[in-house]
Amino acid sequence: MTSEELHITFLDAVETINSHTEPFPADVLLKLYAYYKRATNSKDLAGNSRNPLIGAFKTNALFQAREIDPDEAKKKYIATVNHYFLYRK
Q1: Any idea what the CATH number is for the domain that residue 59 is in?
Q2: Could you tell me the pLDDT band of residue 4, with boundaries at 50, 70 and 90?
Q3: How many structural domains does the chain have?
Q4: pLDDT for 47 beyond 70
Q5: DSSP-assigned states of every residue in 35-83
Q6: Domain containing 75: what range?
């Protein structure tokens, strides 16, 4: 898969998540959050949470994903989305 194809697939996965109306499990959301932040090189990290506990979980998720490069983060985001929709009941 080329870098452009990966980016398009990533954007499709993001759109799938954004258009889904049912709640997601917290562990899935935290993975998606960390992978998205790494994939987009976002500098707006976990500091914007109103709830300190949620901020701590976000910070931990980002810490766990700190060594992942943007392309790998895109792949992991896509895989997480595919796995969630394949195995959810």
Answers
A1: 1.20.80.10
A2: very high
A3: 1
A4: no
A5: HHHHHTT-S--GGG-SSHHHHHHHHHHHHHTTT--HHHHHHHHHHHHHH
A6: 3-87
